[in-house]
Amino acid sequence: MRALPRLAVRPFANRTSRATCQRLLARRTYANIAAHKFGQPLHETHPHLLKPGELSPGITAVEYHERRARLAKSLPRGGIAVLPSSEIKTRSGAVFYEFHQQPDFFYLTGFTEPEALAVIAREESELGYSFHLFVRPKDNHAEVWDGARSGIDAAKDVFNADESHDINRVASILPDLLQGSEVVYTDVLKPHRSQSSLSKLLGHGSTPTDGSLQSLLKAGNVKPLKPVMNQLRLTKSAAEVANMRKAGKLSGRSFTDAMRKSYKLEKDLWTDLGYGFRSRGLDGEAYVPVVAGGTNGLSIHYVRNDDALHDGQLVLVDAGGEYGGYITDITRTWPVNGKFSSAQKDLYNMVLNVQRSCVSMCREDASTTLDGLHRIATNGLQDGLRSLGFDISGNAMDVLFPHHVGHHIGLDVHDAPGFSRSEWLKEGQCITMEPGIYVPDDEKWPSHFRGMAIRIEDSICVTKENPLVLTTEAVKEVDDIEALRGGGSV
């Protein structure tokens, strides 16, 4: 297996003292931690999932500390950041959707429970910051129904908060924490429809209540936190890249296994992929996948996945697994019957050549941007389409290639949302490359290509000189795809 690329040294990585590391890795209250119940896995309770020192798979308590320290250093003197967790979303009645933690909150805390609030203030101290964590208290009755909670003590003793508090006391405690802060960085003032207890405590809604965070911040100097977090999350640590590489490798194997099989229904292919992700050790699907047979692939985000698959069609599959919160993003297109027709092969190889060319430029020394790579992809696809007999005058490319060629990935499928695609790509950033061609069933286009949808996507870590493709185990060469169904080995 190829060694991980050398990544830039993270700020604070060499400044964390031995004493600080020991404090962060210690369990300070629980004499027998494995006998207690917590709201998420710990090494002591789930050693098959986490290694010693890790708060979440692959990420140690020390790294979470370094992230908080980097955030604090990014704030001005007197700055403070306020981050709420995600909330449980109801599907209907008492039935709820699977919980997914708010990525910025998770990035800084490693805490995966709902109804929590992190307050991180810059301070001139050894750590460089103070960390307050509001969480749900232990509640025997509630835990009988909804599972264990970590509780207030664990917020300090496990998750290394300097001070921990009952989330129900936000309104009485938070004003004192904000007092004296010159500027507050937060995104909680965005419109929010939830009516959960955390939402009400934060004052979401049209009429903020007295003592709510919204009312507290109304007269203060408030700035959005998202731009600061984008900068912090954009460059991945070696541990983050390792998580994404594991997600990419195991997801890729699931794709390749799916290509070996013959399916009659989109939902059966979808089921096999999801099972493949989990059975190989991933946490599950990173997002609702696209499993699109034939002309269904002309819809970029087709997710019904309820149609039949027919001989002679292509099937376009955009899916990926998740590990420790980190995702992978893969798209492959292959023939339902395992054998490309002549026209399918011509269009597929054209898209593949463009994709390979773009992937090769995902390195810092190429001095390019995502927008620059999009222009390269567009020009390459235009030339390829011309050679195949397409008329690409007018708005043809807007129809045939309607989306951008790539985006950042990490804890989110579209990581660092709002970050400009015109910024230079740097070592340690992780992105996708996904050129595609979508040919409507229209007389304007050559008849033998009509109705075809082909997209090829890999997840990539940008390095100094040689891109690290995280998803190589999902085969994409025509000969390799056809060999899978023909009994050959890849």
From TrEMBL:
Keyword Hydrolase appears in the UniProt entry: yes
Gene Ontology MF annotations: manganese ion binding; metalloaminopeptidase activity
Cofactor: Mn(2+)
Group of enzyme by EC: hydrolase
Location of the Aminopeptidase P N-terminal domain: 59-195
CDD domains hit by this protein: Prolidase
Annotated GO biological process: proteolysis
One Gene Ontology term, aspect cellular component: mitochondrion
EC number(s) reported in the record: 3.4.11.9
Keywords: Aminopeptidase, Hydrolase, Manganese, Metal-binding, Metalloprotease, Protease
Catalytic activity entry: Release of any N-terminal amino acid, including proline, that is linked to proline, even from a dipeptide or tripeptide
Known function: Catalyzes the removal of a penultimate prolyl residue from the N-termini of peptides.
Family: Belongs to the peptidase M24B family.
Name of the protein: Xaa-Pro aminopeptidase
Source organism of the structure: Myriangium duriaei CBS 260.36
